[in-house]
Amino acid sequence: MGYDGDADRLGVVDERGEVIWGDRLMCLFWREILPGHPGAPALVEVKCSQALVEEIERLGGRPVFCKTGHSLIKARMREMGAPFAGEMSGHMFFADEFYGHDDAFYATGRLLRILSGTDRPLSALTADVPQYCSTAETRIPCPDEVKFAAVARLVEFFKGRYEVVDVDGARVLFAEGWGLVRASNTQPALVARCEARTREGLEKICGLMHEALVKIGGVKPFAWEY
After folding, report:
1. Helices (DSSP H) in 59-198: which residue ranges?
2. Are strands 41-45 and 62-66 parallel, antiparallel or unpaired?
3. Are 116 and 140 part of one and the same domain?
4. Least packed by Cβ within 10 Å: which of 101, 102, 183, 221?
């Protein structure tokens, strides 16, 4: 387990040395929480994998996409009465047995409780969560005074062609997967990420998103990070 400077974000590496990113870690926590809260709203940060959405649905929860940002998520949790939420970055918010804020030491205790109830290693507990092909979170320089207008243009462009989740930028849903572009909360940049079930699908989505970002979003050509 590892923590950031103010200990509100939890980082986890399994016994094989593999990083367990926030969305995969949330799958484990939801498996413990949702049986006691059937049908509960389950907030999903827009950057998270479709595998998390599928796991929540399998467990009987109700996925609800939400904006990135720990203060925004905490407010949305209170509004909806959600028992748990989290971010890719490692913020974990437990409201089922805790106070709904992001305390990484408490999140560690919850993970250790899960591990103490089984002889299986952490890698085995996450082995059945699909690992789809994806880019890393790619930050594309874009001035603060331009980035929100650029995202608005992209939302309108994609809405005429695909289903779009627009709670925080544009999460564009393709047959093969999805592509996301949103304005950074903290930097003069756009944040983009793509995911697909196959490598070929990922390349196709990355190409479509790159073309739109350059032509409609007005950013300079860039390379996806993996």
Report:
1. 70-80, 104-116, 122-125, 144-159
2. parallel
3. no
4. 221
Q: Measure the CA–CA gap between 158 and 214, rounded to whole angstroms.
A: 14
Question: Alpha-carbon distance 174 to 66, whole Å?
Answer: 19
- Structure-block tokens of residue 134: 């994806």
Q: Is the pLDDT of residue 120 over 90?
A: yes
Of 93, 106, 102, 116, nearest to 30 by C-alpha is 93
* Residue type, position 140, single letter: I
Q: pLDDT tens digit string along 24-81? A: 999 999 999 999 999 999 999 999 999 999 999 999 999 999 999 999 999 999 999 9
Residues in the chain: 226
Return the number of other C-beta atoms located less than 10 Å from residue 96's C-beta: 16
Q: What single DSSP character describes residue 33?
A: H
Q: Is residue 220 part of a domain?
A: no
* Residue 174, both tokens: 């393709």
- Is residue 65 within 8 A of residue 167, CB to CB? The reply is yes
In the block, tokens 């923590």 appear at: 3
Looking at the structure, tell me whether residues 203 and 161 fall in a common domain: yes
Residue 157 near residue 212, CB atoms below 8 Å: yes
Residue type for 155, please?
Answer: V
On whether both 111 and 211 belong to a single domain, the answer is no
For residues 210 and 82, the answer to whether their CB atoms sit within 8 Å is no
Please give the Cα distance from 47 to 45 (Å, whole number): 6
Q: Check: CB of residue 161 under 8 Å from CB of residue 205.
A: no
